[in-house]
Specification:
alpha/beta; four-stranded mixed beta sheet; Rossmann fold; 2 domains; disordered C terminus; binds S-adenosylmethionine; elongated; GMP Synthetase, Chain A, domain 3
Length: 293
């Protein structure tokens, strides 16, 4: 088996499917618990035979799924079972915490692993964190497990993701710290009042639309926001920061850029970035019209 692991998946498959066009074979697989997810061009290779070969390459894999795409605003995967156990619920472990999920219904991006750790490590003891797009707890769970926040409010709109978010809170023994909330963050965040020391906005495709709701939880002394988005390679990060700071200003908040980073490459033209900034109301909130009730 060790001999197999020295080669790449594509090299291994090439030795098995000698007549196949090399470019149609998957280059790599995403391994989440016992499930392997692959993408490849459909050029007549029997998908079950290919799936079996992939499971042979990865000894811990029991299920092989083909990822055909990601659908809708909730970013749900579209998959086909290629080979193996049809049970696609699994547990993925990283940096001392665990995520349970059904890989056929929900996305877990492995490329964001370092950003999850980095974000969790930036949380200071006693902080109140609001995770506006919580998913299955990709940021809430690391923050609650690794740092010592007083509270993490985890808001999620998709009932399936919310179900796993609650399971993951229990699985990681952070029930007293992390609190799950089911619904639209644009509606639920403003009900929290001005309590947030840190706000995490881990979403793509219009994250800024939820910024006014995020600002309604900002403390008078200021709050740190981590806003994620997909942007044009190169200049996209700066354009996003300009848009954020202008919106904050128009809503009565001063914003200061703390950091802006590329989390990962997304496509030939786009990259996933995170803008980390501090916001503070410019007026005294106790007398202004936007004061919390
Ligand atoms: C791509 S996932 C990302 C999860 C996690 N924040 C991360 O960055 O790894 C985005 C999540 O936001 C949820 N979502 C989308 N719109 C939402 C909204 N308006 N309010 C709350 N959750 C929302 C989706 O259902 C999904 O679970």
């Amino acid at each position: 088996m060790l001999a197999l692991r020295r080669t790449s998946l594509r090299e291994f498959l090439k030795s098995k499917f000698t007549c196949a066009d090399l470019r149609t074979l998957p280059k790599k697989a995403k391994i989440i618990g016992h499930v392997a997810l692959v993408r490849f061009q459909d050029k007549g290779i029997d998908s079950e035979v290919l799936g079996k070969a992939i499971a042979e390459f990865y000894p811990t894999v029991k299920t092989v799924l083909r990822l055909q795409g990601i659908s809708g605003k909730l970013r749900q995967p579209v998959v086909e079972l290629m080979y193996g156990d049809p049970n696609t619920e699994t547990i993925y472990k990283e940096h001392g915490y665990k995520f349970m999920l059904d890989v056929s219904k929900l996305m877990l991006c492995l490329g964001n692993s370092y950003e999850r750790l980095r974000t969790a490590r930036s949380v200071r003891p006693g902080e109140v964190v609001v995770d506006m797009f919580a998913g299955i707890g990709q940021f809430s769970i690391p923050c609650a497990v690794i740092s010592k926040p007083s509270k993490v409010y985890a808001i999620e709109i998709n009932e399936e993701a919310y179900r796993y978010l609650k399971i993951n809170i229990t699985l990681n023994n952070v029930e007293g710290i992390a609190e799950s909330m089911l619904g639209d963050c644009k509606v639920l965040a403003p009900t929290l009042g001005r309590i947030a020391d840190r706000i995490i906005m881990g979403y793509f495709g219009g994250t800024i639309e939820a910024l006014p709701a995020a600002l309604s939880t900002v403390k008078p002394e200021g709050t740190t926001i981590h806003l994620h988005e997909l942007v044009k390679r190169g200049t996209g990060k700066d354009e996003l920061w300009k848009e954020i700071s202008e919106l904050c200003f128009s809503l009565g908040y001063a914003s200061t850029l703390l950091d802006s980073r590329v989390v990962k490459s997304y496509s030939a033209t786009k990259e996933h970035v995170v803008i980390e900034f501090k916001v503070k109301p410019t007026e005294d909130l106790s007398t202004g019209p936007s004061s919390a009730t």
